[in-house]
Amino acid sequence: MIPSDAYDVWLLDLDGTLVDAEPAYRREVFDRVGDRLGREFSTYEREVLWHGLGGSRDAQLRAWGLDPGAFWDAFHAVEDPVVRAEATYLHEDAAFVADLDRPVGLVTHCAEFLAGPVLDHLDIRDWFDVVVCCDENTGYKPDPRPLHLALDDLDARDHAGVYVGDGASDIDAAANAGLDSVHVERHDPGKRGQCVLGDYRITSFDDLRAPAGGD
Fold it and tell me: What InterPro entries does the record tag this protein with (predicted)?
């Protein structure tokens, strides 16, 4: 168990960590992306790319013979922010975040035009003191810069901090930023094809609810 007061500042990932999109929505998005690229995506490929199960999505796209730039252009072109928000649900155990009584930041690869409507639709924007949506200016995880930007906005660069995420890039970003990490495993580890080694590994935020000094 990890006491919630073990750190002065908490940073968290969004998709796959706190929220996720309904399978039917993910399937529709990839069908439309496939139409634009002239290629079908299997169930396995959809899951790997959506959740980043294989690590770097761009590296995985290249391994499958796809140009990452063309893929992401098509991906963002077919997504409607309102439809995406309405198809997104909050993991029940994520309510833990609302109870944190210290600075909390969100650092996500979800594009800003999609993340904003999701936060508003789920009414969780006020959970976070700062929101950083990764882009070409901020850099992308595992680059530590997005995490450093969040810490700077929180005036907490020198404080004991932790980053919580569901992917290898999250854990690597935490290490690169000098933070501890919590890996939330919401998928069958066998699908990843790799072992994600954070400082802590949990399957639910309920594992973080133990009081300091508790059993």
Answer: HAD-like_hydrolase_sf, HAD-like_sf, HAD-SF_hydro_IA, HAD_sf
